[in-house]
Amino acid sequence: MDETTLKSLGARAGSQWQVNAAHADLTRPARPVRRMALAAQPKEIAIDLGKTAMLVVDMQNDFCAKGGWLDHIGVDFTPARRPIAPLARLLPALRRADVPVIWLNWGNRPDRLNLSPCLLHVYNGDGRSVGIGDPLPSNGSPVLQKDSWAAAVVDELEIAPGDVRVDKYRMSGFWDTPLDAILRNLGITTVLFGGVNADQCVLATLMDANFLGYDTILVEDCSATTSPAYCWDATLYNVRVCFGFTLLSGDLLKGLP
User: Fold this and answer.
1) What pLDDT does residue 2 have?
2) From the candidates 62, 134, 167, 168, which is the catalytic residue?
3) Fewer beta carbons under 10 A from the terminal one: N or C of the chain?
4) Annotation says 168 is catalytic
């Protein structure tokens, strides 16, 4: 090999150095702008597909499947399944357009050492119920524990080989995780959001993304909640007024190459 040949270091074109033994080029040549105009709320927007990623939050058995944690505690989990079909249509198209797909899922340590009492209390208010890490009565799978059935993405959604997986341990996916570093190393400035629950983990992660300087867009039909309807309405209101924009997956699909 010619030792003078420059080699790429970095996750993706647009955020890479070019180096050899004698030289390091730190200029990070930009990826070509891939402008896409979109109908959205509260106004029309344009994004750069080359700097956009799709974040899918918590489409897991514990929240979206019979026998999961929500089903066990008596919550109607069927609303959490509504994003499955729209996501199954959208994600392959995004992959073909070279838009990274990132799966952000609860995936807790078996020993729960990084979880505070106040977080554990949300899932086990009396200390005697089935909470994070406890076995589900239906199949013995530990609630939201990494590599368990409970924490697995629902069967109807495919995690492709090139997708990125990030485990989270809070309602926001940015706390105690590598999510921010991954997005920055991919050269991402715009993040599309889908998943459940829209008013909880999706919104908390979207808000933190906004605080960190990312452009944030909620894909409405690719997200849902098992909370009362007013929580969904408040989420749409807050995203549109305070934190970014909302749109429908069909409008995305129409504009993708």
Assistant:
1) 66
2) 168
3) N
4) yes
